[in-house]
């Protein structure tokens, strides 16, 4: 059922910790899990939208704790009560908003933005991908990442990835 508009009623922020099958090591970090933030946006009409971000101190200067604080203290409260009658209207709002976000708050904004875009897509029965233009490729290409300095492990992982059909691998 298509809706004419939506008004943001509330947000819920979740922290998720996802264990990795392999340790990821590179010059800037060493991780055995991914700690991410999920944001659920709920409209007054009951529809929900979901967004995610992956705070990485070495990328944007953000951590899970700083993202949660930025979301709950600044970004999300400023969006509650906002109404949108089209995807274009929401796009203009988000474009203007992101211009005021400091670099070390981009991951936080990303989670909120994706949640609201998902909510808009469900409301207007339109893909949020329409914002960036038409679909160019019918298939999605995936690549693998090998994050080890051990040449034997890198060779082993590369062989495994080729068995899974990866044609591009970043080492």
What does this structure look like?
The protein has 171 residues and is α+β, with helices and mostly antiparallel strands. It has 2 domains: 6-132, Enolase-like, domain 1; 137-171, no CATH class. Helix content is 37%, strand content 28%. The chain contains 5 helices and 6 strands; from the N terminus they run βββααβααβαβ. The chain has helices at residues 57-60, 64-79, 87-98, 106-124, 151-163; strands at 6-26, 29-43, 48-53, 83-84, 144-145, 169-170. The strands form 2 sheets. The protein has a 4-stranded antiparallel beta sheet. A two-stranded parallel sheet has the order 5-6. The radius of gyration is 19 Å and the shape is globular. The relative contact order is 0.17.
First-to-last CA distance: 46 Å
Shape type: globular
CATH fold title of the largest domain: Enolase-like, domain 1
Going across the major beta sheet, what is the strand order?
3-2-1-4
Topology order in helix (H) and strand (E) letters: EEEHHEHHEHE
The average pLDDT value, as a whole number, equals 89
Q: How many runs of DSSP E, i.e. beta strands?
A: 6
CATH architecture of the largest domain: 2-Layer Sandwich
Strand content: 25-35%
- Weakly predicted, low-confidence segments: none
Number of domains: 2
CATH class of the largest domain: Alpha Beta
CATH superfamily of the largest domain: Enolase-like, N-terminal domain
Main sheet record: 4 strands, antiparallel
Structural class: alpha+beta
Number of helices: 5
Provide the helix percentage: 25-40%
**C-alpha Rg (nearest Å):** 19 Å
